[in-house]
Amino acid sequence: MVEVPETLPARMYLLAYDLRKQRMTARGARLGYVLRGAALTELFLDGRLEELRGRPVPGTPGADPYGLVAQISASKPRPWHHWVRREARTAVRTVRDELERGGWIRVRGRRVLGLFPAEEVTVRDPRVVKQLWGGASSALRGRPVAHVNSYDAAAVALAAAGELKSVLPGPERRRHRRRIAELTARSGPAAPAVRKVIRSQRAAAAASS
Asked: Coiled-coil region(s) at which residues (predicted)?
């Protein structure tokens, strides 16, 4: 079995990579929402965050790799979607740098049309993405939800919420709507918050157009 990153945000970043097209299928704020949601989900599943009146609160003390527990502890109570939205673009850079340092990806600068700076991300070992995709695919189609690996269940929930086409194209999301809902319920409040933020952003864009 191929080794995969330990953290859920790192896994979701790699799942957003399309092996066939050799590029990221989600970028910017939307990818950041998924990664923030992944970090919140990881903390919730590990008991380091709990929910009180629809809001995250610190739970059992432990590691806080992305500093979210510290942020939540220092703030007045706010809903999950606030923490999904906050510093989303920073989350992309943080997780990207983590993966680059760990040797999972290669990042190269380039210029679009010779003018605009951009980044080209390449996964060093495609088997890692295939392994992660296989876990998500198994969660979607395999054993009873209660027996699915918690990170695989969360990967499906977050991929559906973030509309990651590399994992769940639109037809697949519709075909497996009930199963996705069950995996989302298993994974905690952060994935629905990601979906809420993305839909709200889309509605705001439509209203301004």
From this structure: none
The number of C-alpha atoms within 13 Å of 84 and in the hemisphere containing its C-beta is: 27
Beta-carbon contacts of residue 166 (< 8 Å; ≥ 6 apart): 15, 16, 17, 18, 25, 26, 133
Q: Give per-residue pLDDT as tens, 149-160.
A: 999 999 999 999
Write the DSSP string, 115-136: TEEEEEEEES-HHHHHHHHHHH
Whole-model pTM over 0.85: yes
Q: pLDDT of 111-134, one tens digit each?
A: 665 666 778 899 999 999 999 999
Task: Confirm if 184 and 174 have CB atoms less than 8 A apart.
Answer: no
Token pair listed for 142: 């395999």
Q: Report the C-alpha gap between 29 and 21 in whole angstroms.
A: 21
Domains of the chain by start residue, with CATH: 8-208 (1.10.3630.10)
Between the alpha carbon of residue 74 and those of residues 20, 69, 70, the distances in Å are: 43, 9, 6
The encoded tokens of residue 207 equal 């209203």
Q: Please, are residues 154 and 187 in contact by the beta-carbon 8 Å criterion?
A: yes
Please tell me the distance from the alpha carbon of residue 156 to that of residue 52, in angstroms, as a whole number. Answer: 25
- What is d(CA 5, CA 131) in angstroms, rounded to the nearest whole number? 11
Residue 104 CA to residue 95 CA, distance in Å, equals 11
